């Protein structure tokens, strides 16, 4: 079992009050689409928060206070006009992030600022050494948000906002983002496209969301040339594809880049039961990914590792995936076993396929070309 660590944990009841409306999955109600809650609804995250308590892991984690990100902190990443529009709509009847499908209700701007502000503080406590690592169970998620608009259920770019605090206030020089959400991390890619101080790695299902995004050929420009790595895995990828990606791409890229801090965009939509993704990762798969990240953070940056929750839409399965990750990074194993695990252990979907390996080997060449510190 892993060593015991001081792991910070963020959750706030208000995160479950962010209202994404009755757009069936993503489609607005129409004569053929019966209204139902959006996939990005409170259940997945609130049920993970519940399992953290019922499993008693919550008593072992260091629960962190939450706070709102200030305007100054948000302006390091976002445009003022976008923030003003969010605030105005949030104070009246609610609104939409900017891509036509990122619905939010009354009060969501404040909730989003609380998500971002709490991640800033958690990251700060890891940098100061008060904590060893941390998990922010935040909502709304952030990895699709861009400087001037919300996108794909995301309003504020939580991870970049925390990274800019680390760099501009705490003087951290180099940060790596590992994004294992099943969708492409387009927000960080855009924000750090020509910035060599942040290595952005996104592992996602090929051509899922956003459309025309996340291609392996997109590697950054100027000062950021070679510091953006996309690994677009074919639909249907299981554990072995993810493990090989971590070993052949993520580790070599991190090793060359030598980050001072590793941030993780932690989405559980590559899971076996997700309604939006077609991947096959189990809770033990996510546990193993977390184990590798802890090991590499120990080797490269004194263990400094901060997870920020993104997507994941199976209300019954996300809690077991999230619990496994939090158990692994904190070194506390609870008595809760994933009830799905026995049925999936020998599923042939987990075997590495040749088409998956081909993408991984192409991406390994990009990792070998990351500019060295
Ligand atoms: C619409 C489309 C989507 C699809 C997936 C997400 C998931 C985000 C997430 C959000 C919006 C397309 C409405 C394509 O979990 N990120 O981590 N929207 N999809 N075309 N149209 C019209
Ligand atoms: Zn996602």
Write the SSE topology.
Layout: E1 7-10, H1 42-54, E2 62-63, H2 71-75, H3 80-91, E3 95-96, E4 103-104, H4 108-128, E5 133-136, H5 158-168, E6 175-179, H6 186-191, E7 198-205, E8 228-233, H7 239-257, E9 261-266, H8 283-301, E10 305-309, H9 318-330, H10 341-344, H11 354-367
Parallel strand pairs: 1-2, 1-5, 5-10, 6-7, 6-9, 7-8, 9-10
Antiparallel strand pairs: 3-4
Helix pairs in contact: 1-9, 4-5, 7-8, 7-11, 8-9
Bound molecules: ligand 9RB and zinc ion (ZN).
Zinc ion binds next to loops.
Could you describe the 3D structure shown?
The protein is α/β, with parallel strands linked by helices. It has one domain: Arginase, Chain A (3-Layer(aba) Sandwich). Helix content is 37%, strand content 12%. It has 11 helices and 10 strands. The protein has an 8-stranded parallel beta sheet, sandwiched between helices. Helix 8 (283-301) packs parallel to helix 9 (318-330). The longest helix has 21 residues, at 108-128. The structure holds ligand 9RB and zinc ion. Residues 26, 101, 141, 143-144, 152-153, 181, 183, 209, 211, 267, 269, 276, 310-311 line the site of ligand 9RB.
How does the overall form come out from the CA principal axes? globular
Question: Which CATH architecture is right?
Answer: 3-Layer(aba) Sandwich
Rg over C-alpha atoms, rounded to the nearest angstrom: 19 Å
- Residue share in β-strands: 5-15%
| Fraction in helix | 25-40%
| Number of E-state strands | 10
What is the fold-level CATH name, i.e. the topology? Arginase, Chain A
The largest beta-sheet arranges its strands as 2-1-5-10-9-6-7-8
**Which series of helices and strands comes N to C?**
EHEHHEEHEHEHEEHEHEHHH
First CA to last CA: what distance?
33 Å
Bound molecules: ligand 9RB, zinc ion
- Average pLDDT confidence is 97
Corresponding CATH superfamily: Histone deacetylase domain
Major sheet? 8 strands, parallel
Q: List unreliable stretches of 5+ residues.
A: none
């Amino acid at each position: 079992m892993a060593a015991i660590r001081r792991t910070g944990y963020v959750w706030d009841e208000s995160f479950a009050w962010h209202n994404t409306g009755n757009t069936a999955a993503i489609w607005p109600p129409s004569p053929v689409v019966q209204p139902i809650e959006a996939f990005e609804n409170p259940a997945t995250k609130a049920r993970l928060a519940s399992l953290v308590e019922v499993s008693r892991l919550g008593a072992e984690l260091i629960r962190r206070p939450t706070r709102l990100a200030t305007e100054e902190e948000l302006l390091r990443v976002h445009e003022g006009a976008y923030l003003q529009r969010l605030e105005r709509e949030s104070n009246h009847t609610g609104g939409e992030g900017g891509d036509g499908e990122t619905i939010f209700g009354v009060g969501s701007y404040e909730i989003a600022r609380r998500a971002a502000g709490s991640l800033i503080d958690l990251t700060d406590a890891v940098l100061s050494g008060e904590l060893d690592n941390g998990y922010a169970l935040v909502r709304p998620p952030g990895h699709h948000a861009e400087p001037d608009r919300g996108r794909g259920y995301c309003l504020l770019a939580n991870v970049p906002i925390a990274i800019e605090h680390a760099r501009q206030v705490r003087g951290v020089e180099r940060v790596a983002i590992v994004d294992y959400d099943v969708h492409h991390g387009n927000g960080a890619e855009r924000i750090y496209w020509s910035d060599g101080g942040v290595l952005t790695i996104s592992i996602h299902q090929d051509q899922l969301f956003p459309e025309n995004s996340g291609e392996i050929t997109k590697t950054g420009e100027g000062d950021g040339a070679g510091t953006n790595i996309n690994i677009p895995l074919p639909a249907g990828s299981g554990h072995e594809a993810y493990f090989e990606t971590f070993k052949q791409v993520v580790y070599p890229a991190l090793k060359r880049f030598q980050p001072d801090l590793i941030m993780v965009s932690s989405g559980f939509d590559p899971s076996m039961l997700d309604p939006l993704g077609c991947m096959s990762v189990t809770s033990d798969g996510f546990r193993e990914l977390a184990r590798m990240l802890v090991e590499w953070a120990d080797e490269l940056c004194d263990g400094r590792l901060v997870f920020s929750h993104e997507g994941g839409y199976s209300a019954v399965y996300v809690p077991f995936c999230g619990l496994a990750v939090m158990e692994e990074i904190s070194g506390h194993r609870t008595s809760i076993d994933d009830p799905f695990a026995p049925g999936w252990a020998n599923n042939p979907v987990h075997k590495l396929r040749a088409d998956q390996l081909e993408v991984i080997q192409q991406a390994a060449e990009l990792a070998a070309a990351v500019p060295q510190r």
